[in-house]
Amino acid sequence: MNEYNSENKKYWVRLTRVCNNNCLFCLDADEQNGSYEPTESILALLREGRARGFDQAVLSGGEPTLHPDFFAIVSETKKMEYRRTQTITNGRMFSYAGFAERAVAAGLDEATFSLHAGAPSAFETLTRTPGSYDEALKGFMRAAKLSGLAVSVDILLTASTIPSLTDWIKRLSDLGASEFDILYPIPFGEAWKHKNDIFFNLDESAKDIVKAFEFCEERGVKAWSNRIPARVFEGAERFIQSPLKLRVEVEAKRGMFEDLANRGVEPPCSGDRCAFCHVTDFCRSLRKFSGAIASKKSPSIIITENNVARLGGGFPYEPETIVIDGLGILENEQMKRYFLKRDIRIEAIINKPFENYQRIPDIVSTVYLEINRETAKNLSNIGSALLDKVELKIIMRGRATLEETLGKDIPIAGFMREFLRSGNMEIEILNVPRCLTGREEMRVFDAVPANVFKSSGEIDLDEYVGCYMANWMSEKSARCAGCSHYADCPGIHINHVRAFGFSNIPFGI
Ligand code: SF4
Ligand code: SF4
Fold this sequence. Notes:
This protein has 509 residues and is of the alpha/beta class. 34% of the residues lie in helices and 15% in strands. The protein has two domains: 10-236, Aldolase class I (TIM Barrel, Alpha-Beta Barrel), CATH 3.20.20; 297-459 and 466-504, TIM Barrel, CATH 3.20.20. Strand 7, helix 6 (165-175) and strand 8 form a beta-alpha-beta unit. 37% of the residues are buried.
């Protein structure tokens, strides 16, 4: 399973603003001015990273190996007790006799080579640098021969390289590559200027991409999918990238997303690029949410045992609706008084089999019954048992992790078949696409946990990312393209797709 390790404590430090290649897709071109970062500044940053608890140093650029103090900087990372030191390189410096050996002697643990194509002409069309193929491959082979140095490879997917992707991976693996990071292009830097050469028809290329991942799996070589849209992996969902990677993407542009969240400043990249962008759904979600907050629309707030204390003081809003996630909270008399005093509408999420909750407190006006392994066992008479007392809705919930999904949920397609057969047609179903419910409307549950707001009233970006990943990060199948609901349907939650497959979307099968 393609699980991303969020505990990975990698600390990226730029060494140069110069590169000896001139890649057609370079994301860094706008940052380059031909200079080296001052060594003292680099070391100060590395010390800061260590103090913040990072234990893996990633030396990047531009091209980091061009820095005149490259070996000394590697050596310093070891003195600072970084557990692992890695560099991201075009590989050409490693072709010089003794370079790889000196790097290893200084303490380099891993070199990640950017080797995007197996054919010299395709390679140099991408690097726009004659001779770069021979040097890079020679550098890679020299490094791969050294014990004590892990060699991994970055491969950017482009129209010209995808058809021979598996052959290229096989060759590099035969030569000693231990790991591959297979990247989907993003619409920035040089890649956007050359978008017609870089972007490609994803659905036509899906078979070749999956074949490469299957090859790596058979061979026992790790392959990470990096920003590759999930729909590519229909039938091979184990290769879908973990949604946790979104945190890294947001961190890389934190200032921009903070501006969007709390100051309503539209990102400077907004426009034509968004249709090609890997974070377009997140960006749209944040824009809509911050716009609603700015125009004083009060979202429903989810209260759990873990965040109930936020209501005691310092919560910046007077919500109209509070959704209790765990009825035990209502047994707290102080909380009950808080709710009554403020004339707040109280709703509740129930995640246990229904018969355990005959005594729903009067204060609750709406119950959301969560679909999960336990509640799904008791489908009959759900409506008649409670409909006379409260408004009852059924909700498919997203989960923060794959493990949680596998532990709690059941495939939604099977559940819906049983549910509709059981005759509960009058009950509203949230977060389930119309191809599964057969209904005219699909409502998305849009309440947010109290933690999404700081005491100041600002949106807490990290909490919002967590909320988005756990609740709204959804995917559609490539088959959905033919559906009349495509434009306003989010699909099903990414971790549900990873756990139970795209086959849970019945449309077009
Ligand atoms: S989706 Fe957001 S980050 Fe991506 S190009 Fe558009 S505005 Fe920029
Ligand atoms: S867009 Fe896809 S998931 Fe949504 S209703 Fe249509 S077929 Fe179903």
